[in-house]
Amino acid sequence: MTHFQKLPQELQLHIAELCTRSTLLSLLNTSKALHQLLTPVLYRVIDLSSHNGPDINLRVPSTSVPSDWPVNRDNPIDGTVYDKQRALIRTLRSHPSLGQHVRILRWTTVDYSQHVEENELMPLWDQYNEGIISRRKLKTCLEEYTFNNCTSRLWDTFTTFAHVLEVDIAFMGADYREAYPPPPLFQHVQSLRLSGMASSFLIRSILKSTNPGLLRHLHLNNPNRFAELEGLQEELPLREKGKLRPFPQLSRSAGPMRTHLLECYDKWCNLQSLIIDTAGLSGPGPDTLSITDIEALEDESIRYRELGTLIRFVANNLRVFRFQQGSTEEKHRNGWRPPPHVRCAGPFPPRDGLRPMDALFHQHILSAILESTWPRLEQMELFGVSSYTCYINREGVPINRPLPDETLSRIRTIVGLGPVLDIRPEATRLFWLADSSEGSGVVEVGSDEWTEDEEDSESDIEEES
């Protein structure tokens, strides 16, 4: 028996919590007793993410959503996260009880690496093309690699995390919606952070699955959505959605997430912190609105009203509240105008005035703050909120004017003298915004592809017989 094993179990566990993962694995392999004792420590924190720290490089070319930090584009590919995710899923499929130990989950739906594509996927396709394996066998093999398309394989893995308390998920890299609707997930979660691009249905499903009485911390980290389809049956798998005839028409374009809070915000009675980070509409000015711009403003008004309603419902219990809105780094999204009748000239900056995001902030967010009570508030942060924006030169360097002293005084009166107030006209970061041409994330399935399903059914019968 080693000196470590002679220590009391409480001390062994404390030492194990301070160890690196590799050291902990070495300890696990020392004896059966230590393996049984320390396995819960090994699985307590599952951090297989690449969206919330600079230590893991993100595979940029296949990712629609940028990470939260500047990526080193000279070395953009790192398949470590994906490989570890695949290994974890294999382990949990064989030993699902291990998921009961997970308390913290951080996950990014990254794509597989070029190495996996060249050395594992392409040989599978070669075997299929050469007739060595059947199409059904090919599909079964591919399921192991496409889990981050939000397939049933991923949902089955997340279902094993029945006692997870903290969840941070970023949906990144996919050009289409979830392959399968998610089952109820994370029913005991206390802290939830959602980022990236997904369908409103997916985010709404996750929010509805949580126990509203247990959720303490909610961070909506600039989630964006696919375009909405008219009359879409959301509960269908992605392939079945693609078979719908007539194929649904777009009702609204892609953009910032909305309609995902409608069934939840009146139930979060114990929420202690609420953080909303979002991209706002910077331009164009009201005198140059197109039909598309008018629809975008209508969507934004609905979205800000929804966020304002959420604030009103939860303000009474909040200790920490942050609302941050900001523009993107793409000029055409921020209201920059093409020069009239001038060739080879750069775009003109937006006209001076109140940005649409600021008008919506004053109408929905500020009014919600001033009309609510904040008896437990300890800190409030309002970033990227200004009363006026102007451009001092042809380069279009923006200057956002702070909120009037009268408005600041009203906020201080409402929240009281105790809480820390941090109100800035500039956002702390640039934001990403889904392109309106991103589409619905539903791929239309041609009628000639339907026969593949029939062939699969026939092969199932043959295999069973």
What does this structure look like?
Strands 1, 2, 3, 4, 5, 8, 9, 10, 11 and 14 form a 10-stranded mixed sheet that branches. The protein is globular, with a radius of gyration of 25 Å. The protein is 35% helix and 15% strand. It is of the alpha/beta class and 465 residues long. Among the domains are: 1-42; 43-208, no CATH class.
Task: Based on the model shown, name its key terms.
465 residues; alpha/beta; disordered C terminus; globular; 14 strands; single chain
How many DSSP helices? 14
Give the class from helix and strand content and strand pairing.
Answer: alpha/beta
- The residue fraction in helices comes out at 25-40%
> What general form does the structure show?
globular
Order of helices and strands: HHHHEHEHHHEEHEEHEEEHEHEEEHEH
Low-confidence stretches: 55-62, 71-77, 461-465
Give the averaged pLDDT, no decimals: 85
Rg, alpha carbons: 25 Å
Give the N-terminus to C-terminus distance in angstroms: 55 Å
What profile does the largest beta sheet have?
Answer: 10 strands, mixed
Percent in strands: 15-25%
What's the β-strand tally? 14
Summarize the structure.
This protein is an alpha/beta fold.
Topology:
Blueprint (H helix, E strand, L loop, with lengths): L2 H4 L2 H10 L2 H8 L3 H11 L2 E4 L31 H15 L9 E5 L5 H16 L5 H8 L9 H8 L6 E6 L19 E8 L1 H10 L7 E9 L2 E2 L8 H5 L7 E3 L2 E2 L16 E7 L11 H24 L5 E7 L29 H15 L8 E5 L4 E4 L6 E4 L3 H11 L4 E5 L22 H18 L1
Parallel strand pairs: 1-2, 2-3, 3-4, 4-5, 5-9, 9-10, 10-11, 11-14
Antiparallel strand pairs: 5-8, 6-7, 12-13
Helix pairs in contact: 3-4, 6-7, 11-12
